[in-house]
């Protein structure tokens, strides 16, 4: 994990607990996993858990934050330039992290992904070149939520269907929907 400014020993402990939790989630329901099981799988004492995390959700949030930092480095910081290229890179990233995405989907924890994504609104605004001209701050947040929610919803549906379409196909479909949602669906706007 690459959480900046963190003690390397704490990083290793957190990563070990995150990996232990993810392994356990492949075998059983998230809600049935105990702190004791996580610690045993990480070969760490319960006190280490409580020193680093307040809850199981906090472990997942830590792991998601690191994954989203990788996303920021691989996609956002490269500034893809066009909406089509941005969408392609988003779906490629999702495909590369498909096992994690599918695990969160199957465990009904996708809401945690959405919560962590909404933290970086400024990156999404910059990438999508969203500028709510003539809008107040509240309206601007609605605009951002609309685009972010649409992207999240499409990615979620793609994961739920087993990611059968290629990232390129998903990028093209999503771009068509974002550019003109009603005609793309064969619905008149009248």
Largest sheet: none
**Helix- and strand-based class?**
mainly alpha
What string, H for helix and E for strand, traces the elements in order?
Answer: HHHHHHHHHHH
From the alpha carbons, calculate the radius of gyration and give it in angstroms. 19 Å
Average of the residue pLDDT scores: 81
User: How many helices?
Assistant: 11
Question: Quick one: overall form?
Answer: elongated
Helix percent reads over 70%
Runs in which pLDDT lies below 50 for 5 or more consecutive residues are none
Q: What fraction of residues sit in β-strands?
A: under 5%
Distance between the termini: 51 Å
Oligomer state equals: single chain
Number of strands: 0
Provide a quick synopsis of the model.
71% of the residues lie in helices and 0% in strands. It is an all-alpha fold and 190 residues long.
Description:
The protein has 190 residues and is mainly alpha-helical. 71% of the residues lie in helices and 0% in strands. The protein has eleven helices and no strands. The protein has helices at residues 8-27, 35-42, 46-52, 56-76, 83-96, 98-106, 110-117, 121-127, 137-160, 167-179, 181-184. Helix 1 (8-27) crosses helix 2, helix 4 crosses helix 7 and helix 5 crosses helix 10. The radius of gyration is 19 Å and the shape is elongated. The mean pLDDT is 81.
Features:
190 residues; 11 helices; mainly alpha; elongated; single chain
Question: What does the secondary structure layout of this molecule look like, with pairings?
Answer:
Layout: H1 8-27, H2 35-42, H3 46-52, H4 56-76, H5 83-96, H6 98-106, H7 110-117, H8 121-127, H9 137-160, H10 167-179, H11 181-184
Helix pairs in contact: 1-2, 1-4, 4-5, 4-7, 5-10
């Amino acid at each position: 994990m690459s959480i900046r400014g963190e003690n390397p020993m704490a990083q290793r402990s957190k990563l070990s607990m995150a990996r232990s939790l993810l392994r356990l989630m492949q075998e059983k329901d998230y809600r049935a996993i105990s702190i004791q099981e996580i610690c045993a799988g990480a070969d760490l004492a319960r006190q280490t858990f409580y020193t680093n995390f307040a809850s199981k959700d906090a472990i997942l949030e830590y792991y998601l934050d690191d994954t989203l930092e990788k996303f920021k480095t691989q996609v956002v910081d490269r500034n893809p330039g066009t909406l089509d290229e941005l969408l392609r890179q988003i779906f490629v990233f999702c495909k590369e992290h498909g096992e994690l995405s599918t695990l969160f989907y199957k465990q009904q924890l996708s809401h945690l992904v959405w919560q962590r994504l909404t933290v970086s609104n400024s990156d999404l605004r910059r990438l999508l070149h969203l500028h709510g001209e003539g809008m107040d701050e509240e309206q601007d947040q609605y605009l951002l939520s609309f685009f972010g929610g649409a992207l999240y919803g499409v990615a979620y549906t793609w994961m739920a269907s087993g990611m059968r379409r290629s990232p390129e196909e998903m990028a093209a479909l999503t771009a068509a929907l974002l550019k003109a949602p009603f005609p793309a669906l064969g619905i008149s706007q009248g």
